[in-house]
Design a protein that fits this description.
- The protein has about 325 residues and is of the alpha/beta class.
- It has two domains: about 130 residues, 3-Layer(aba) Sandwich (Rossmann fold); about 190 residues, NAD(P)-binding Rossmann-like Domain (Rossmann fold, 3-Layer(aba) Sandwich).
- Helix content is about 35%, strand content about 15%.
- It has 13 helices and twelve strands.
- The strands form two sheets. Strands 8-7-6-9-10-11-12 form a seven-stranded parallel β-sheet, sandwiched between helices.
- Helix 10 links the parallel strand 9 and strand 10.
- It is elongated and about 65 Å long.
- It binds D-malate (MLT).
- The site of D-malate (MLT) has 9 residues, from loops.
Length: about 325
């Protein structure tokens, strides 16, 4: 069995595939080569986010290609509908990076409230800006989570430990799940924005969530905490680019309605180095590194190797994202 790993994978995971008898080829495959049938020499392909897989690339890989694997959570770089039409299972590793993304989200939140990136920049430029860098605490503030899946639930737990009051909006989850862990669920997303000064994003990018955070909703954010302290409004997105309307967020940073914005993900990646967002002192960002930890990549690799081997041995992996469409 030959497995193509196009965007890198933890070496323990490569070993696991090799120990199971696979010939693992680790090499980025160019777009045109994929279109011209590069996958036809493989039984499985494992990608991260750099490789985009279209219908014609998958079609050109048949009949040998048996499984498409995404070493990560989001499958937005794979045409899953086309894979289903071609009878190809698409498997992912939905649990492996949860803790890493939770921790990065909290890191960005703390970084924003205490101006850590801005303070570092000013320190390096020779300033001692102690008086200008008066931040706020997480304690007592209202945090609104967009989505209440695994990552949001992890963020909720840490936020509660900091003494935050946690709210969420997730139309796809029974209210009882949030109630059990002391999180207030909102049926209307606008109410979440009217209630919370701190918003973190944990949903997929879909037609429904594209620019869900826009001018109208940012304008609704109260800017004051339950004790009437002016804590400002803060947004963090470590989920998917495009959920935050970056132009609207920049305008809100300029007007002062938004006090801080932290993004790990951007509508267009890599982000344009000339983007005016990068110039704003109350913005800070990271280059899509939510899952980029030693632990997460170790788990992602092993989980995805397991899923690929299951399919190559004739089984159905429990992380098959198009299982319903295939049956
Ligand atoms: C994921 O979907 O797993 C994350 O966004 C990480 C990544 O794409 O590298």
């Amino acid at each position: 069995m030959r497995v193509a790993v196009t965007d890198g994978m933890a070496k323990e995971a490569v070993k696991k595939l090799e120990n199971a008898g696979c010939d693992v080829i680790q090499e980025f495959i160019e777009h045109d080569d994929l279109v011209n049938g590069a996958l036809a020499e493989f039984d499985a392909v494992i990608v991260r986010s750099a490789t985009k897989l279209s219908e014609e690339m998958m079609q050109a890989g048949l009949p040998r290609l048996k499984v498409i694997a995404r070493a990560g959570v989001g499958v937005d770089n794979i045409d899953v509908d086309a894979a289903s039409r071609l009878g190809l299972p698409v498997v992912n590793a939905p649990r492996a990076s949860t803790q890493s993304v939770v921790e990065l989200t909290i890191g960005h939140l703390l970084g924003s409230l205490r101006f850590i990136p801005r303070a570092d920049r000013s320190l390096r430029s020779g300033q001692w800006a102690k008086k200008e860098l008066k931040g706020t605490e997480l304690f007592g503030k209202r945090l609104g989570l967009i989505g209440f899946g695994r990552i949001a639930q992890g963020v909720a737990k840490v936020a509660q430990a900091f003494g935050m009051e946690v709210h969420s909006y997730d139309p796809y989850l029974p209210l009882s799940v949030a109630k059990k862990v002391g999180v207030t669920m909102h049926k209307n997303v606008d109410n979440l924005f009217k209630t919370c000064t701190h918003i973190t994003v944990h949903c997929n990018l879909t037609d429904e969530t594209h620019h869900l955070i826009n001018h109208k909703r940012i304008s609704m954010m109260p800017g004051v905490d339950p004790f009437n302290l002016k804590c400002g409004n803060h947004i963090v997105n470590c989920a998917r680019g495009g959920i935050v309307d970056e132009d609207a967020a920049l305008a809100a940073l300029n007007s002062g309605q938004l006090t801080s914005l932290a993004l790990d993900v951007f509508e267009h990646e890599p982000v344009d180095p000339a983007s005016p967002l990068l110039e704003h002192m109350n913005f800070h960002g990271t280059p899509h590194i939510g899952a980029a930890t030693i632990e997460a990549q170790h788990r992602v690799g092993l989980d995805i190797a397991e899923a690929v081997l299951t399919v190559l041995h004739g089984g159905i992996a429990d992380t098959t994202v198009n299982r319903d469409a295939l049956s």
